[in-house]
Amino acid sequence: MIIHDARTRSILHVSGRLDGINKIAHYENPNRGGEQIRSITSVLKNDKGEPEALLCINVNFSALDTAVAVLTHF
Questions:
Q1: pTM for this one?
Q2: Which of 21, 22, 26, 36 has its CA 20 to 30 A from that of 49?
């Protein structure tokens, strides 16, 4: 997971866990190797409810897709 500062457009944190996120986007796209990546981007708000950062989670599901394909042949 990566947290981006919405004001400075810089990376604040890589990895970890946060509560109180507001999901704004979910999408799939291929990575450079052609594998399907699933991504979720959320807005993190401050105590006043103002957007302060973006949380981006990117997950490569190619290994799971391969496992499902193998298991369906049984």
A1: 0.48
A2: 26
